[in-house]
Design goal:
The chain has eleven helices and four strands, in the order ααααβββααααβααα. The protein is mainly α. Strands 1-4 form a two-stranded antiparallel ribbon. Helix 1 (2-32) packs across helix 9 and helix 5 (150-172) packs across helix 6. The longest helix has 31 residues, at 2-32. The chain is globular, with a radius of gyration of 20 Å. The N and C termini lie far apart (53 Å).
């Protein structure tokens, strides 16, 4: 029972990060109907920028509280990644809106490789140690053998607050109504006074900011960052978005949490299920097995797919 509870905790932490990344995929798809495969590498850039900021601040003001350094680094990273996503949309995707759907996909892959190469040139190809600025002391959960650390609690609570804030933004604000209108039909939204280009740019910027936050969370959780760190989480978050129903915000959140739980439970029990033939290092199998099963049996996802009108 302790192992099961521990895997549930690990799965929720991992799933909350997947959910944040998946929101970026699903917002862009909901409005433009394209898959931004460069999104995972924006995550990587966010982690690297935060690391650079933290190391600079620790050198200039070593007495600054660790939590304040981390908060400033997150804000810095989110702002720059929002600007990066805006640039990617304007330069790489906007000219291709009327192109065949394969063109933006190829462009996204090209942008992904470009970001990885630039990051490798700036920060090197070797993994870099990410400073532990949050408590790492394990605490027992309800007197059981399962444990949770302070940084995992912060990740869970921050993810929850950000997801709730995003839902409120989309459902309750004027900007959110404009985003929903643009997703339904850009031409009609423009006739109603909405500027589709502005709304699409803001959507990309929000996705970039969320990716940066997720990147810092991953780097904090695992204690390192490297130029390739966004690729696998990006693919898994895409799987989560498809699982929940790509284009559907609650679906992305649900898909992320479910994928994290499936992956964590699978990693915890795969050794017992296979008689020791496979170990926890095969946990990635579960994410992509889920993607195959969803595409075969429920292509629209658990909560339904929302497709933009691109006419």
């Amino acid at each position: 029972m302790d192992i099961f509870l521990q895997q549930i905790i690990n799965g929720l932490v991992l799933g909350s990060i997947y959910a944040l990344i998946a929101l970026g995929y699903t917002m862009v798809y909901g409005i433009l109907g394209i898959i931004n495969f460069a999104h995972g590498d924006v995550l990587m850039v966010g982690a690297m920028l935060a690391l650079t900021f933290i190391m600079t601040m620790m050198g200039l003001w070593p007495d600054m509280p660790a939590w304040l350094t981390l908060c400033l680094a997150i804000g810095f990273s989110m702002a720059l990644c929002a600007a990066l996503s805006y640039s990617i949309e304007k330069i790489a995707y906007r000219p291709l809106r009327q192109a065949p759907r394969l063109a933006p996909l190829i462009t996204a892959i090209g942008v992904s490789i470009l970001l990885q190469t630039i990051a490798m040139m700036i920060w090197s190809r070797n993994p870099l140690t990410f400073p532990q600025l949050l408590p790492t002391q394990p605490m027992q959960v309800f007197g059981t053998g399962a444990t949770i650390t302070g940084k995992e609690i912060v990740i869970l609570l921050t993810s929850l607050l950000v997801m709730v804030a995003l839902l409120l933004l989309v459902e309750k604000t004027r900007l959110g109504r404009a985003m929903r209108a643009t997703a339904e039909n850009k031409q009609v939204a423009a006739l109603m006074g909405v500027n589709p280009n502005r709304i699409i740019s803001i959507t990309f910027m929000l996705g970039g900011a969320l990716a940066a936050l997720a990147g810092v969370m991953i780097a904090t959780n695992y204690g390192n960052a490297h130029f390739y760190m966004g690729f696998i989480p990006g693919l898994k978050a895409f799987t989560a978005a498809v699982l929940g129903g790509i284009g559907n915000l609650p679906g992305a959140m649900l898909g992320g949490l479910l994928l994290g739980l499936i992956e964590s439970l699978g990693a915890g029990y795969i050794g017992d299920l296979t008689g020791g033939v496979l170990g926890s290092n095969y946990q990635d199998v579960f994410a992509f097995a889920v993607l195959i099963l969803v595409l075969v049996f429920r292509p629209s996802g658990l909560l339904g797919e929302r497709v933009a009108d691109r006419a």
